[in-house]
Amino acid sequence: MVNINGINDNFQERLRQAESAESEVQRLQPLAAEAPQLRLQKAKAQKEEERRRTKEESILKATQAAQSAADKQVRMSDVLGHTANAVIELYTLLKDVDSSRQRALEALAIADRIDYDIELEESEEHERSLDRDTRGLAYALAARHGDVKVQQMLEELDPDFSMMRGCNLDEPLYRDVANFVMRHAVPKEELLQPIISQPASESSVGPASTNTPVGPSLSQPDAKEYANETNGTDGADNFLL
């Protein structure tokens, strides 16, 4: 139906709706303008919440780990005591082994000296029977006796002897502990090396690192001393001059 102004009801309704919408847009426009800022605030709040939760979880884990460390640390005194006792036991054992080797050297030195005396007496008797001069005989025979001979005799008694025979020397920690104790107990012994790292050729060059040398107090007379002690009245002094 068209009224007298040529405007029908339909148009009036649409105009009313449009004006209503326009009014609503104008009313919501300030609120809509706040949307970007509100989104930023929301993201910031979520990030802060995430950080807070992560921090709390981290502090809780740190507290639990620190408490676990404290609980375990209580055992440290006992473990250290056991370790020290084990080291002392190893130290004492090394000293005992070394002492036994030294006693063996002392005994072998006596046996070697007896062999020397017998060899010298027999050789002098033989040389005199041939009317030969025996003045240099004591010195010559003494060169085959003494420290080197005694050490050789000891090695023949136990050819495969070493301070750490049968021990795991390829494990670095074991080797370090053994070397630490050996440096204090038997400093004359050479430091241990891992067996697998030693070339085969090295084992045949030079003396074995586990040999027990004759200590200063057990040192045997050298060739001159042997000759002087044994043949002092038979002209050996003239020879040594």
Description of the structure:
The protein has eight helices and no strands. It has a domain at 78-240. The model is unreliable at 195-221 and 230-241 (pLDDT under 50). With 241 residues, the protein is an all-alpha fold. Helix 3 packs across helix 5 (147-157). 12% of the residues are buried. Helix content is 68%, strand content 0%.
Short key terms for the protein model shown above:
single chain, disordered C terminus
Please provide the count of β strands. Answer: 0
- Element-level helix/strand string: HHHHHHHH
Specify the overall morphology.
rod-shaped
Query: Largest beta sheet, briefly?
Result: none
Mean pLDDT: 79
Low-confidence stretches: 195-221, 230-241
**Span of the ends, CA to CA:** 159 Å
Counting H and I runs of at least 4 residues, what is the number of helices?
A: 8
Rg, rounded, reads 49 Å
What oligomeric state is this? single chain
The portion of residues forming beta strands comes to under 5%
Overall helicity? 55-70%
Query: Structural class of the helices, strands and pairings?
Result: mainly alpha
Concise account of the structure shown:
The protein has 241 residues and is mainly alpha-helical.
Write the layout of secondary structure elements.
Layout lengths: L8 H25 L1 H39 L2 H54 L7 H6 L4 H11 L14 H14 L37 H9 L4 H5 L1
Helix pairs in contact: 3-5, 3-6
